[in-house]
Amino acid sequence: MAGETAPQDARPFDVVVVGGGPAGSAAARRAAALGLRTALIDRADFPRDKLCGGLVTGRSRTALARIFDLRVEAEPTLFLPSRTIRFMAGGTTLRRMDDAPAMWLTMRRAFDARLVELARQAGAEVLTNAAVTEVRPDDRAIVLRDGRCLRYRVLIGADGVNSTVARALFGRAFDPATIGFGLEAELSLPAGTAPETLPTQEVVLDLDAADWGYGWIFPKAHGVTLGVGGLHAHNPDMRDRMLAQLSLRDPAGDPAARTIKGAYLPFGDFRKLPGRGCVLLAGDAAGLVDPITGEGIAHALDSGSLAAEAAAAALSGTRPDPDRALVLYRRSLRPLQSELRQSRFWRRMIFSRAMRPVFKASIARGSSMPARFLALLAGELDYGDLRRDLILRTPRSLLRAVMARGR
């Protein structure tokens, strides 16, 4: 939306980042570290709540170390480690694995606040409680709720599934009919209880909790996060499914009395064109969420860093060209977007009506598939490896039948 020309007293920045989640903090920290005058803006004050299971995978661990010099193993108050995962179908355990690749669980309230502070320490100027009310691509400026105006050479929209920046570029962020929806509740442990003594130390995935999705129970330092999520179009009764999960997992509690958070999840609908000119989209704002696993933190961190590097390259040299940032960013995002395309193929193989019983049965009988997906989360495999393995093992006639049945 082009508006009036930005006032002469608008504050100038090389890079303005909108959104203080992992993608935005990664973009701001990397841009500041590269010597760019950087502003990081968020509509909330930190710490603030965020709907997210808070699962930090091996891929996320690697990205945190590279971008923030943050070592999850050295932060026991922020990250709770787990190597145990239980796959369930309602009240039935399909399989428990005690030797899963290392995972870490965190509360986004504390995690995001830490990343914002690390971006600040790198030199980014952090403006919180500063909602963006207008984006002016033609003027390369944004206007904040309090009337302040900031100029940018490159703008990075990392402001989530309901991105103000994406709406300014494309009219709306995402189509709710094509993305996911999730609900979550926090269940606290009794006072004085050591979480490592409880069975909730394990990660639980319930494959029957939602259609084209799943339910989760993630251990935290002071309790567990319980949630359900799946494609919105296939789950019009998501709240009833959430209440059923609360009744199943916490039979002594009152599901109706729980505080339940809800949010759209942009998995499986990433933007092929993640921006326009000198305006880039990263993380959830670009739809960079795995449509099977729900992995979003690692992709947010990586895309935020890549967006900052594209901005720095476009603004460097004797003839800087901010509009070149998108060309460079798209090039660097190709491997990740290729992964997400392949993940959509696997989503049909796993969640379709034809294949879901087959997938659950394969887990129950001890197949290697769960271990391979955990290795994917850990960054040890990619979807290309899984697809090659499937093609080698599965008759072509069965593959064609599965793809034809789809839903």
From TrEMBL:
SUPFAM superfamilies: FAD/NAD(P)-binding domain
GO molecular-function terms, A-Z: oxidoreductase activity, acting on the CH-CH group of donors, NAD or NADP as acceptor
InterPro entries named among the record's database cross-references: FAD/NAD-bd_sf, Geranylgeranyl_Rdtase_fam, Geranylgeranyl_reductase
Protein name per its UniProtKB record: Uncharacterized protein
Organism encoding this protein: Brevirhabdus pacifica
